Amino acid sequence: MKTTLSVLVENHPGVLSRVAGLFSRRGFNIDSLAVGTTEIPDISRMTIVVEGDEYIVEQVKKQLNKLVDVIKISKINPEESVSRELVLIKVDTSPETRSEIIHIAEIFRANIVDVSRKSMIIELTGDKNKVAAFEELLKPFGIKELVRTGIIAVNRGTNTIKIEEED
Amino acid sequence: MKISGAEALVKSLELENTEIVFGYPGGAILSVYDSLYKSKIKHILTRSEQAAAHAASGYARVSGKAGVCIATSGPGATNLVTGIATAYMDSIPIVAITGQVSTDVIGRDVFQEVDITGATAPFTKHNYLVKDADDIPRIVKEAFYIAKTGRPGPVLIDLPKDIASKKIDFNYPEQVVLRGYKPTTQGHPLQICRAAKAINEAKRPIICAGGGINLAGADKELLELAQKANIPVTTTLMGIGAFPENHPLSLGMLGMHGLASANKAVTQSDLIIATGARFSDRTTGEVSGFAPDAKVIHIDIDPAEIGKNMRTDIPIVGDVKGILRDIAEKVKHNERTQWIEYISSIKEQINSPIDDSKDLYPQEIIKMLSDKTSGNAIITTEVGCHQMWTAQFYEFTHPHTFISSGGLGTMGYGLPAAIGVKLAKPGETVINICGDGSFQMNLPEMATAVENGLCVKILLFNNKGLGLVRQLQEFYCKGRYNQVNFEFVPNFVKLAESYGIKGMRVKHRDELSKAIDQFLLSKESFLLECELDIHENVYPMVLNGSPIDEMIGG
Question: Could you tell me the residue range of the domain that residue A114 belongs to?
Answer without folding.
Answer: 82-152
